Known about the structure:
By secondary structure, this protein is an all-alpha fold. The chain is 44% helix and 0% strand. It has 4 helices and no strands.
Amino acid sequence: xxxxxxxxxxxxxxxxxxxxxxxxxxxxxxxxxxxxxxxxxxxxxxxxxxxxxxxxxxxxxxxxxxxxxxxxxxxxxxxxxxxxxxxxxxxxxxxxxxxxxxxxxxxxxxxxxxxx
Length: 116
């Protein structure tokens, strides 16, 4: 079978995503149903990470204007820390989220990493 010739093709090189791996930037978050992290949530996230002895992650949060600029893996680590804290202190005796659990879930959701 002969190779098909479709004529001249664009020789423009493919643009690499500045965020890597096709990760959505903040401008596309609303289209995916992901809420932006408010300045208050970012400040609260920073203080929570310090309280939970995750200073390295707190420093990374403090260095970016928008937490969605952080690599997916770093946001995943943050979600793990917050999820562990939520499992320990975020539920009442009936296994329903308490106010603290709702706050943690809201931050994880704003990071674009919530399952439910």
